[in-house]
């Protein structure tokens, strides 16, 4: 992977805008539970309900965003979704005192925030076709840096005002919307710009969504694998977190695990590159290797009910995350042609369902038996994801997309 200085200015500007947006998003989301419990004086069950509604809105947003891409167009969809998200966040402080309205607003914010995701991923795949594999990985790293910075700042902002976090998130979303407004106008009026012409053609294409959904070999088993991974990964918040508290460890130790996650994503890219070269030289192999790493991490937690075991588990699952996060959008961008936005939204929506199901399943298991049954569930879901990714690899055997050198020929159009 090249260094950032070797990329064109256009890509650097795009990555900077993505980083700023990620920082803004991270200012708010860690504080939602605290805001509901502390500021609004509601119960933790009420806080869980807000997170659930927000998550369901996010699933709907990804599905809707993928379906609307060809009907609305890339420019209107990305700019409109980001602008609506900004408006919702800026209005949230004024509307948060009415409980029902607050819940509805959180659902809408989850919807608007996710609405632009498949469109932005598809934009990267279409606009930077020759470098999309590398760029998906770089955007993933940039977003994680933004999350680390934003999360660190959120605690300081909360001491000043919860509302300030919401407003700053809204401002960064609005700035990201303005960035795309000028950015897409510039590349769309470039006269002889072939990439811009192709982008417009792809954005205006239309096909029956039901017909696209019947091509299950392209997305279904990969999406189910992602859903299972997300379900199992709920072990951190719904298993490891209460385990640390119950055993008298410092709450900061849970934060250290996620600090480790963020550091590894930034500094351990050479290790990930080595894994790809030695054991996962195709995107499909990356998916399977990712699931094996997740399963290994959960097995360690199951075998070692201790903080060192959790550290090792976090290291293994972080490498799994580093493989899967850029692989899914890269595979769909390479193999679904102009319909990539729909499949990105559909796969993202199915995958996100695991984040909704996981906390409730694991919460009940932890109440009944502690960390052991939770870890067993995580191991089983990861093992099942290995199976679904292997099935995905077999039924897409003719698609030999390299993790370092993307194909130019779409399999499905």
What is the gist of this entry?
The chain has 413 residues and is mainly α. The protein is 82% helix and 0% strand.
Question: In angstroms, what is the radius of gyration?
Answer: 21 Å
* Euclidean distance between termini CA atoms: 29 Å
From the spread of the alpha carbons, the general shape counts as globular
Number of helical runs? Answer: 18
CATH class placement of the largest domain: Mainly Alpha
Secondary-structure element series: HHHHHHHHHHHHHHHHHH
- In terms of per-residue confidence, which ranges show pLDDT below 50 for 5 or more consecutive residues? 189-197, 199-205, 400-413
Which structural class matches the secondary elements?
A: mainly alpha
Round the mean pLDDT to the nearest integer and report it.
81
CATH superfamily membership of the largest domain: MFS general substrate transporter like domains
Transmembrane segments: 12-37, 49-70, 77-95, 101-126, 138-158, 164-184, 218-236, 256-275, 287-304, 310-331, 343-362, 374-395
Domain Major facilitator superfamily (MFS) profile: 10-400
Main location: membrane
InterPro entries: MFS, MFS_dom, MFS_trans_sf, MFS_Transporters, Tet-R_TetA/multi-R_MdtG-like
């Amino acid at each position: 992977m090249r260094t950032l200085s070797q990329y064109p200015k256009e890509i650097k500007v795009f990555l900077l805008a993505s980083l700023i947006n990620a920082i803004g998003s991270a200012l708010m989301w860690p504080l939602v539970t605290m805001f509901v419990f502390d500021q609004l004086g509601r119960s933790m069950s009420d806080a869980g309900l807000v997170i659930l509604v927000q998550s369901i809105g996010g699933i709907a947003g990804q599905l809707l965003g993928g379906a609307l891409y060809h009907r609305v167009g890339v420019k209107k969809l990305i700019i409109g979704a980001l602008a609506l998200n900004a408006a919702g966040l800026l209005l949230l402080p004024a509307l948060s005192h009415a409980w029902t309205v607050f819940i509805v607003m959180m659902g809408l914010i989850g919807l608007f925030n996710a609405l632009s995701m498949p469109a932005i991923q598809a934009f990267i795949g279409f606009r930077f076709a020759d470098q999309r594999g590398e760029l998906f990985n770089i955007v993933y790293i940039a977003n994680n840096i933004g999350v680390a910075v934003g999360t660190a700042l959120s605690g300081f902002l909360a001491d000043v005002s919860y509302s300030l976090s919401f407003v700053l998130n809204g401002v960064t979303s609005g700035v990201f919307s303005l960035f795309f407004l000028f950015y897409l106008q510039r590349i769309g009026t470039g006269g002889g710009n072939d990439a811009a012409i192709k982008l417009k053609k792809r954005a205006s294409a239309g096909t029956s969504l039901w017909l696209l959904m019947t091509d299950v070999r392209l997305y279904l088993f990969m999406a189910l694998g992602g859903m299972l991974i997300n379900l199992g990964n709920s072990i951190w918040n719904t298993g490891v977190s209460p385990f640390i508290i119950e055993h008298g460890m410092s709450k900061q130790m849970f934060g250290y695990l996620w600090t480790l996650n963020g550091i590894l994503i930034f500094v351990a890219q050479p290790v990930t590159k080595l894994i790809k070269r030695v054991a996962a030289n195709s995107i499909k192999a990356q998916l399977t290797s990712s699931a094996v790493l997740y399963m290994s991490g959960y097995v360690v937690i199951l075998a070692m009910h201790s903080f060192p075991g959790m550290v090792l588990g976090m290291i293994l699952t972080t490498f799994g995350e580093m493989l899967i996060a850029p692989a899914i959008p890269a595979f769909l961008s390479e193999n679904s042609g102009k319909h990539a936005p729909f499949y990105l939204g559909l796969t993202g929506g199915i995958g996100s369902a695991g984040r909704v199901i996981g906390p409730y399943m694991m919460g009940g298991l932890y109440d009944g038996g502690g960390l052991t049954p939770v870890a067993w569930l995580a191991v089983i879901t990861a093992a099942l994801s290995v199976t679904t990714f292997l099935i995905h690899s077999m039924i897409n055997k003719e698609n030999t997309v390299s993790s370092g050198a993307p194909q130019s020929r779409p399999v499905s159009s």
